[in-house]
Amino acid sequence: MNMRRWTSWVMSTVFFFGNPISAKFLDCTVPASSAEHCSDSLANITVVESGEFIIAKLQCYGCPTTARHEKGGHEITHEENALFFNISLSQNHTQLLLNSKPIFPSLASPRPNLYAPQIPLNYSFSSLSTTIKCTQQPCGNFDGKCDCVADNLGGVRLSYDYYTFSSSASGGWIIRVDALGGHNGYMADPYVDFDSPLQKVLQINIEQHQNGRLEILDSTRLVERIPAPAESHQEMSTWDKIRKFFGFEDDMAREDGHIVYLISESDYYGRPGTLKHLLHEVWGNYPWRLIAIIVGSVLGGLTLIYGIFRFVTLVYRSPTGQGAKNARDEEYKLEERGRLLDGEEEDTRTKSDEEGRLLDEDDEETEA
Ligand SMILES: *[C@@H]1O[C@H](CO)[C@@H](O)[C@H](O)[C@H]1NC(C)=O
Ligand SMILES: *[C@@H]1O[C@H](CO)[C@@H](O)[C@H](O)[C@H]1NC(C)=O
Ligand SMILES: *[C@@H]1O[C@H](CO)[C@@H](O)[C@H](O)[C@H]1NC(C)=O
Ligand SMILES: *[C@@H]1O[C@H](CO)[C@@H](O)[C@H](O)[C@H]1NC(C)=O
């Protein structure tokens, strides 16, 4: 996002059915700014920068929130809240990002973890303004990400149903993300299904231009949930089990093109039943480094064995390079080599000649 644009960004709000009802210059962090609208609550969809930056507020019905205590520790609370979605584009406008994760033209594989901060329903333009200001500052968190969403009520890692389809012949696309459930990141706390019948689905409308550039349309909105088709409960094939073990089968791809990513069974080190999970349980924090070491050792060992094999075959190669044809040839060669070796040292030859003579004499004596 361009810094200069931020200093006087235009905000327009769009209501549930997608009609922009107001547009205002708003930077509530500047004291002189018109405080008029700063305490207003955000609508479900807030167009911050037309075409490239929209904030969506998806009410999360009955979803628990998390209060972090200053002195450490936390507590599960039950404030009314909404999921905060930052809908933006990559720098060259070729990828659509949802809370900084690329979701279009394709959802990454393995499926991205989507984290959604939770905000109060009356989240104000002032809070959003503070949030956006914060994202423009460098911040030194361990993962390089800022915890910028002001006045949040915690956040969740989401299970989601992702679905995309073309909306028109002229490059229009619709991307739907349904937050199916979430987990607040504290191991001991339960996973929660977001299964209220009131729960809505985030629908992002975009336009994909010929050159691949994307544009986020202001008609982005919240839509009703469509009852999910029954998931197939077929037995996994052996191949699927192997794929899952190596972490490839991240979702249940439903027949109708939905991609469902569930975190209910997973922890931070991969889902149970995957290699990553197994190794993490056994070896701690660096399973992939360990795999690299194992694979490296095995390859190194094989290379060494091959090297020895090559060395040995080189040493014992026949002078003609064709190898022994049969046992007689082999014997002949050994004799030859014996003779050559004998010729190498005068002393040895003399000695063996003498021995030969002695033997000859013995033979003669025996004969005599
Ligand atoms: C925002 O979305 C909720 C559903 O989650 C809906 O009940 C409400 O009317 C919407 N608000 C506006 C201003 O459209
Ligand atoms: C846009 O950027 C991504 C990486 O951020 C890159 O892979 C892609 O090739 C770029 N596309 C164009 C058209 O420049
Ligand atoms: C929204 O996401 C973009 C892309 O990751 C990021 O540059 C920006 O700071 C985010 N804004 C907010 C308010 O989270
Ligand atoms: C939002 O609502 C809560 C109570 O639900 C209240 O304590 C808080 O002051 C309100 N914030 C704003 C900005 O109106």
TrEMBL record:
<feature type="domain" description="DUF7728">
    <location>
        <begin position="57"/>
        <end position="121"/>
    </location>
</feature>
<keyword id="KW-0812">Transmembrane</keyword>
<dbReference type="InterPro" id="IPR056145">
    <property type="entry name" value="DUF7728"/>
</dbReference>
<keyword id="KW-1133">Transmembrane helix</keyword>
<feature type="region of interest" description="Disordered">
    <location>
        <begin position="335"/>
        <end position="368"/>
    </location>
</feature>
<feature type="compositionally biased region" description="Basic and acidic residues">
    <location>
        <begin position="335"/>
        <end position="359"/>
    </location>
</feature>
<protein>
    <recommendedName>
        <fullName>DUF7728 domain-containing protein</fullName>
    </recommendedName>
</protein>
<dbReference type="Pfam" id="PF24854">
    <property type="entry name" value="DUF7728"/>
</dbReference>
<keyword id="KW-0732">Signal</keyword>
<feature type="signal peptide">
    <location>
        <begin position="1"/>
        <end position="23"/>
    </location>
</feature>
<keyword id="KW-0472">Membrane</keyword>
<feature type="transmembrane region" description="Helical">
    <location>
        <begin position="286"/>
        <end position="309"/>
    </location>
</feature>
